[in-house]
Design brief:
2 copies of one chain form a homodimer. The first copy, chain A, is an alpha+beta fold. Chain A is 16% helix and 39% strand. Chain A starts with a strand and ends with a strand. Chains A and B meet through strand 4, strand 5, helix 2, helix 4 and strand 11 of A and strand 4, strand 5, helix 2, helix 4 and strand 11 of B. Strand 12 (174-183) of chain A pairs antiparallel with strand 12 (174-183) of chain B.
Chain lengths: 187, 187
């Protein structure tokens, strides 16, 4: 079940370095894109950063709206995640529909939440024009965050079923599932 | 065996979002720190980005030298990785020795390569003062890169033994090992 989580804990959703789906919307157009280069930046204020390539349809929607959603897809969605990275929203009128992804309205931003994911970060762009232009790098402030409460314990994911695990893109359609927990005790 | 890899492929070492050890050196002082917030930024030029907290000993060494090494530790090194994130180089005269880490000289930079890791990115800081001051965010250009050729196939890691897998920090000493490959075929 999707439940809202505290903003000050929201960056933790990205701590383990998963590959994400970035959804975006502007003036009736929506899109979704795969992003492997996305990471946490701070807890308070809750900030993350993501690389969004120049010339992409997502880039145009994000720059026009100043908003996006970072969604954490699962092994069950690997095929859609890979296709989201290969297809361009410029060539496909409705990429979300093409990929058979269902969505739900976000709370604060116009971009949709992708159903079946296990974490969601609604974000607003912190304008850093030079970083965007020079490095395709976006600084994002999290304005609402959600997690699948069957898996999220407030600090991390407790995965059980293999198909619920998050994904880490390696290269050209090869991903790693998030693996087994390794716990280090103090001392 | 550690072998040098092409710079244009070096960012691939970070694609799957592992937590890394950042080693640094300046005027005879060396240090090592755990960094979960580190990601690829571009292939050509080979660039990565990392968050290095203000006030940390590593931050001082990196700002003074303009260099660092990003090392990819394994499950076998989880305890040292966690300790590297908890201990401050300000309180421990030689944190690398304290953690019983062995090192080898790098090729281009003064910071050492940490032995037993499976990937290494020698980096120089691309000066972006505002990003460093405002977000603790460093833009880094890779100037030499290495991988354990028993595991790296030129595009990604082929892990076999559990203790050789890379790590992803979740929260407070809980890591995930990099998990099973998930391959998506085109179409």
């Amino acid at each position: 079940m999707r439940a809202e989580i505290p903003l000050a804990r929201s960056s933790l959703l990205l701590n383990h370095g998963p590959t994400v789906l970035v959804s975006s919307a502007h003036q009736g157009k929506t899109n979704v894109m795969a992003v492997a280069w996305c990471m946490a930046l701070d807890y308070e204020p809750p900030r993350i950063t993501a690389v969004i390539e120049e010339g992409s349809h997502t880039r145009a929607l994000v720059e026009a709206s100043g908003e996006l959603v970072v969604n954490l897809p699962t092994v069950a969605q690997a095929k859609q995640l890979y296709a989201a990275g290969r297809l361009s929203g410029k060539d496909v009128p409705d990429k979300i529909a093409k990929l058979s992804l269902k969505t739900s309205p976000a709370k604060v931003v116009g971009a949709p939440l992708i159903d079946g994911c296990v974490g969601w970060l609604e974000c607003k762009v912190v304008p850093e024009a030079r970083m965007q232009e020079e490095y395709d790098l976006f600084i994002l402030e999290v304005v609402a965050a959600w997690a699948d409460t069957a898996l999220w314990d407030g600090s991390t994911f407790n995965f059980t079923a293999p198909e619920q695990r998050t994904l880490h893109h390696a290269s050209k359609g090869q991903f790693f599932a998030t693996g087994e927990p390794v716990r280090v005790t103090k001392g």
